[in-house]
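Thread: Newbie trying to understand structure tokens

Hi all, I'm a second-year student working on a class project, and my supervisor (Dr. K.) asked me to get a predicted structure for one chain before our next meeting. I've only ever worked with sequences, so writing a 3D structure as a token string is new to me. If someone could post the tokens and maybe explain what I'm looking at, I'd be very grateful. Here's the chain:
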Amino acid sequence: MTDLRDVLHSAYTFIRSVESNKSAAALTLDHVIQEQITFLQKGATQPIVDSRGESQGTRTSRFDQLTELQNNLDAAVKAIQDAGDDAGKLAALGIFEANKQTTGDADVSSNVEENT
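---
Reply by user tm_fold:
Sure, no problem. This is what the structure looks like when written as tokens:
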């Protein structure tokens, strides 16, 4: 008899390939182009749907994601500049050891004893 795993794998693969063929058959070039436009367009959102077809929220457009990332980076840079050399303010931002000299690539790691 054929291995049980092979039988289950073949059955699963057959069912998934039929589902994939049905979904790909409905796909048109216009649909793909519109999806790409929506993916990039400012202010657009796309629904996120799980394998059962249930909504998992929405995804913002790539333009909006990049705008948010730029705003976050600008805010981080401004916060670091505003902190200056104040170790307390830098520590509040998550930057520690601001006044210590960094080690070179040839130097031994500071936690080498902990790793042995």
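A couple of things are worth pointing out once you decode it. Residues 60-99 form one domain. Strands lie at 45-49, 55-60. Feel free to ask follow-ups in this thread.
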